[in-house]
Design goal:
Rna Polymerase Sigma Factor, Chain: A; Arc Repressor Mutant, subunit A; 2 domains; about 70% helix; globular
Length: about 190
């Protein structure tokens, strides 16, 4: 979606238009979830929900362009992710709900298996193995599409530190055994 379309949606959402807010959500939710999956793992959807709740609550006070909105959104998401990591350290959870696949005679969901094995999930899992600062820089730059200055603003770092972290992360990914294995596999045609 182009920035001019997002600008229209943002302007309408600021006036309280729910359909325009939905346009913003549809445009930003996929990269937001990918970023959060690397940062907080299985809690990504919960953190994304908390992020959007805060965005909905505070949207009237927002001023700026679609690119400033993206920075604002990812800053909120990062702060919610930090809160989630702190909460998880204070109160580690080990709940295990009985799920259908645990029942005798149940079969696994083929669609779920395909999703779990998709290239996107594989790529996000590999990126998650990077040091935290590198993973965040790579996700914000490559997946969220933020520029260096915007990424620096989200992370609260200098642009030079973001460039270095992203470069180191990408170099580390290029040397990662699984990435090299996929690159060398003649049967695998898709890249990361």
């Amino acid at each position: 979606m182009q920035d001019d379309e997002l600008a229209e949606a943002l302007t309408a959402a600021l006036r309280g238009d729910a359909a325009a807010f939905a346009v913003l959500w549809r445009a930003h939710q996929p990269p937001l979830l990918r970023y959060l999956r690397v940062i907080v793992g299985e809690s990504a959807e919960d953190v994304a929900s908390e992020t959007w709740l805060q965005v909905a609550r505070d949207l009237r006070s927002f001023t700026g362009s679609p690119s400033r909105f993206r920075v604002w959104l990812f800053t909120i998401a990062r702060n919610r992710a930090i809160d989630e990591r702190r909460r998880a350290r204070r109160r580690p959870e080990e709940p295990r709900d009985l799920i259908e696949r645990d029942l005798p005679g149940s079969q696994s969901d083929v669609a779920d298996e395909v999703i779990q094995r998709s290239d996107l999930d594989w790529a996000l899992a590999v990126i998650a193995t990077l040091p935290k600062d590198q993973a965040e820089a790579v996700m914000l730059r490559v997946v969220a599409g933020l520029d260096v200055a915007q990424t620096a603003q989200v992370l609260g770092k200098r642009p030079g530190a973001v460039r270095v972290a992203a470069m180191r992360g990408l170099r580390r990914l290029a040397r990662h055994d699984e990435v090299r294995g996929r690159r060398d596999d003649p049967g695998h045609t898709e890249g990361v």
